[in-house]
Specification:
Number of helices: 12
Strand order of the largest sheet: 8-7-18-19-20-17-21
Bound molecules: flavin-adenine dinucleotide, uridine-5'-diphosphate
Radius of gyration: 23 Å
CATH architecture of the largest domain: 3-Layer(aba) Sandwich
Number of strands: 22
Length: 402
């Protein structure tokens, strides 16, 4: 890989078989696959001063490896994704655990057997738990909304507790809405778990942290001679879509274009802005060995922030007498204010607006939106890698059919 800090004066898009917008998972995975499988020359434009998208990590002033855009824990059930990423990193055996600080008591989230006893007392908690097993089985996940939908007084009691104490205020902070006002797939990410497993991702077959961090993983992923990465380069200065054509540097571009940014921005938001939620991440370095017992503590009943992450607890980094934590303060995303669009807001009118932009680019045969922003989806890392691998397969099939 050649890494450029800016776009050279003599840059010519026609020298490349593929132009990629964004050096996060979506763009980097497609770039690597097409470079190594099809021998394509690839240029990646990245507006930030670094690769790795929102998974970017770096050492802070205290020498602690931090996740600059929020805590990232790798977890998946997809063997193809795990096989692919494992070419570029080794993994630690970190298993993510989260505690919720509920009116002063720390209890496992997702709400599980232990949480039940902490919430309702040993005896009543156990009785309710056994009843849950009878109804739903053991070691199963039950989405909050399914629990709310039963017409049994005991289950209603559990549902009310979990709704009120785990989901209501956290969700109001995160989304500015109550849990029943947002898409049920969002709260279903953190179901009630009927079992003793206290991991945040109990079903994940592969879980861990990249042993040297995410940025190092990306350095290896992009380390291929046919790939050039141009940092500090907003692709919109070079690329635009006009009718059914991509125009690059003023001329029609016939190669392939992978776009991983927000789709509305490509068109100056002329049909309207796609709404997102953003976060203000407040980092703090403290002169102590350890701040909290687990990687992340959620605050579902108090505080203005949603959660505190302590990075050493996740990365396993050993550094004596100092630790860095980070608090996440959610907020609406406002364009042009230097904020990051972290979460698509999955509401029908927003999806409908997204579809209008998607239809536009659907007319452009060589243009492919891919990733969390460009597909306006709530994708975890593994889902983005999977989507990018599938897109690369599609492109390879088209190439071999020519
Ligand atoms: P991104 O990583 O956003 O990359 C897109 C890139 O495109 C960015 O670098 C952007 O600067 C660049 N770009 C955009 N527009 C332009 C332009 N016009 N020109 C040039 N460049 C441009 N997933 C997990 O699996 N586990 C987790 O624990 C986890 N935690 C998360 C925590 C938070 C707070 C957030 C927000 C997300 C988390 N995720 C997690 C999700 C994960 O971040 C995403 O799935 C993944 O990073 C998406 O990759 P991407 O390539 O689609 O997008
Ligand atoms: N959630 C909650 N309380 C919690 C954890 C999660 O209300 O203690 C809800 C909240 O609406 C959140 C969603 O579940 O946005 C998904 O949580 P997850 O931890 O998956 O969010 P992410 O890590 O993607 O921000």
């Amino acid at each position: 890989m050649a890494l450029f800090q800016k776009l050279p004066e003599n840059f010519n898009p026609q020298d490349y078989d593929m132009l990629v917008v964004g050096a996060g998972y979506a763009g980097s995975v497609v770039a690597r696959r097409m470079a190594e499988e099809a021998g394509w020359r690839v240029a990646i434009f990245e507006s930030r001063p670094h690769i790795a998208g929102n998974a970017y990590d770096e050492k802070d002033e205290a020498g602690i490896l931090v996740h600059v855009y929020g805590p990232h824990i790798y977890h998946t059930t997809k063997a193809n994704v795990n096989d692919f990423l494992s070419r570029f990193t080794e993994w630690t055996d970190y298993q993510h655990r989260v505690l919720g600080e509920v009116h002063g008591t720390l209890m496992p989230v997702p709400f599980n057997h232990a949480s039940m006893k902490l919430a309702f007392g040993d005896e009543r908690g156990e009785a309710l738990y056994q009843k849950l097993i009878e109804r739903f089985g053991e070691n199963v996940k039950v989405p909050l909304m399914d629990l709310c939908a039963t017409d049994d007084a005991d289950f209603e009691e559990i549902a009310d507790y979990v709704y009120e104490n785990i989901f209501l205020y956290y969700t109001q902070k995160q989304w500015g809405k109550t849990p029943d006002e947002i898409d049920p797939s969002i709260t279903a990410r953190v179901p009630v778990f009927i079992g003793d497993d206290d991991r945040y991702f109990p079903g994940a077959t592969f879980q861990g942290m990249p042993a040297q961090g995410y940025t190092k993983l990306f350095e290896k992923l992009l380390d291929y001679e046919l790939i050039d990465v141009f940092l500090n380069t907003d692709a919109r200065k070079i690329l635009r879509v006009e009718g059914d054509q991509v125009i690059a540097d003023g001329k029609p571009y016939e190669g392939t274009v992978i776009y991983t940014g927000p789709l509305d921005e490509l068109f100056g938001c002329d049909l309207g802005e796609l709404p997102y939620r953003s976060l203000d991440m407040q980092f703090e370095t403290l002169p102590m060995e350890r701040f909290q017992p687990v990687g992340t503590v959620n605050y579902p009943t108090s505080e203005d922030f949603t959660r505190i992450t302590e990075f050493k607890n996740m990365t396993g980094q050993v550094k004596e007498g100092v630790t860095t934590i980070m608090r996440e303060y959610p907020m609406p995303y406002v364009r042009g204010e230097g904020m990051t669009p972290y979460y698509a807001i999955l509401e029908p009118e927003n999806q409908a607006l997204y579809q209008k932009y998607a239809e536009r680019v659907g007319q452009v045969a060589n243009f492919y939106p891919c990733g969390r922003l460009a597909e306006y989806r709530y994708y975890d890392m593994d889902a983005v890698v999977d989507s990018a691998l599938q897109l690369a397969e599609e492109l390879l099939e088209k190439t071999s059919a020519k």
